[in-house]
Amino acid sequence: MAEAIAVQPDAATAGPVLEVAGLRKEFGELVAVDDVSFSVPQATSLAIVGESGSGKTTIARMIVGLERPTAGTITACGADRSAPARSARDRRRRGSEVQIVFQDPYTSLDPRQTAEATVDEVLRLHHGWPRDRRRARIAELTELVGLDGRQARALPRALSGGQRQRVAIARALAAEPRVLILDESVAALDVSIQAQVLNLLADIRDSTGVTYVLISHDLAVVRQLTDDVIVLHRGVVVERGATASVLDDPQHEYTKRLRASVPRPGWRPRRGALLGAGEEASG
Amino acid sequence: MDQSAAAPPGAPLLLVEGLTVRLPVEGAQRAVLRDVGLSISPGEAVGLVGESGSGKSMTARAIDRLLPRGAQVAGTISYDGTDVMSLSGAAMRRYRNQVAMIFQDPRAHVNPVRRVGDFMTEALRTNLGVQPAEAATRAADMLGQVGIADGRRRLRQYPHELSGGMLQRVMIATALLTEPKLLLADEPTTALDVTTQAEVMAILDDLRREFGLAMLFITHDLELAAAICDRTAVMYAGQIVEVRQSALLHDDPLHPYTAALAAARPDIAQTAPRLAAIPGRPLSAFEAPEEECAFAPRCPHVRDICRAETPELVGLNGGLSRCARAIELRGQLTPAHAPDGGSDG
Description:
The complex is a heterodimer.
Chain A: E1 16-27, E2 30-41, E3 45-49, H1 56-63, E4 71-76, E5 79-80, H2 88-97, E6 98-101, H3 115-127, H4 131-144, H5 149-152, H6 161-174, E7 179-183, H7 191-208, E8 211-216, H8 219-225, E9 228-233, E10 236-242, H9 243-248, H10 253-260
Parallel strand pairs in A: 3-8, 3-9, 6-7, 7-8
Antiparallel strand pairs in A: 1-2, 1-4, 4-5, 9-10
Chain B: E1 14-25, E2 28-40, E3 45-49, H1 56-63, E4 72-79, E5 82-83, H2 89-98, E6 99-102, H3 116-120, H4 122-127, H5 132-145, H6 151-155, H7 164-177, E7 182-186, H8 194-211, E8 214-219, H9 222-228, E9 231-236, E10 239-245, H10 246-249, H11 256-264, H12 304-308, E11 314-316, E12 319-321
Parallel strand pairs in B: 3-8, 3-9, 6-7, 7-8
Antiparallel strand pairs in B: 1-2, 1-4, 4-5, 9-10, 10-12, 11-12
Helix pairs in contact in B: 5-7, 7-8
């Protein structure tokens, strides 16, 4: 089953599967993303870490084509995607390169579509397969993400948050993307379900060779799933490196502050300790 | 009173016993809380931890008498010796001034077209008869206490002009204005960035100690609860399954669910080859099996005895556990003692 979904090998596997250079996005006066560059080798995982307003979701939206960069280039599987797609065919090709799973499984699915119909639509659109072949792949994909037959035929309203997120992952995988962007995709899940989905994502990477870009504020999740990390603060990359070394030995002040803010045994929050001088001083 | 095992001595400020709540869902009365017992002493911080549907928010709502219409409530809630369920009118308003609540999403709990000062001082003006000028002075002072400078100007602002972290600090200040004795905090930092959460928690912790305020702190984050609460209660499927000194909760849990919850969470300090996921999904009270242990369908330590009856919450090593095998499993629930749960295979 796993092999059936494996990424087709092709010439592009040698270089990075996703490359971003000098990326910039302005919203009016605001510079949301400022000169961000990174490249992600095939079958590895990159985390983009930062707090709200750091620009991490804007980067994700530019990669999948939901926002247009003000400057800079985005290259996926050797093809430029900095400018909008010029045809339906071009858009489909891009869809087969990069897919995204959003944070909120309650708003990212069509309420009138069952899990099977959701996956089927993508298979029809991207591969144009006959019905039998689509049915077989739907069964494979729903099994891969751990949905049983009843759940696969259910409408989203009958599914829990974790089950909906599995549907969203199955839908994204149906296009057989080389890169899957996970935009806070496990943030809204209960701890016990989050562990199941993180294990599932690791299994899928092992069996398909898909590359992940994980957008997250949760450093423990980042540690579990990714090889490399970039830390974003106000649109600028302030630190980058192997995930383990950045988390164990952060160099930038902001990364240190992020790391120190995570509750852990023996942790005591102290006023002002995490902020610079100014209005926040205890009083 | 089976809470005595894990509660500090002295008269509790809040005492909840045998609390069972049913809500009408699609025509049927369905249990959301089953036999919840809880005590909080003056000045004590108690954590209430659980996954969605476990009943932790419903417990706080029951305590503050904010249950939805049509709720059937059995059991007792007493505050400072008074039966909370019998309160009405002025007595109810006095009680709500004493027992203040802060919520996860402050924006959902403020009127966006009213100024900060207007909603901050409402309880003072309408319930306690404080003059507007005096109320404004107290509100501005309290903003200073939560680290918001220039309080007078902030009082004239609208909620949309404040960031999420600042608005939550405003909510904390508002809750403290009526000089409550007990704060019910329902996931107050869940919607905030992690550095903002640390700052808000520090403020909450500081002021709580300064004012001698007791707190029921509701969260899904076991480590956050452990860090700031004296004791922590863990809920599953509408029941309390464990109460423990927070310092012991992580390393020496008494209930398999607590241990499983801690083990399922990824670790910031190391990558696990595989996370110890709990099979299945968290159940609501009405979905869980009734005449047996509610966690039995997902528990790695389940035996016939677990299916025989609903376990009682019993005292054990200074804590409480609702597990039929709690004594037997003592010390075997954490990975260090039972690699892969192997001894229990």
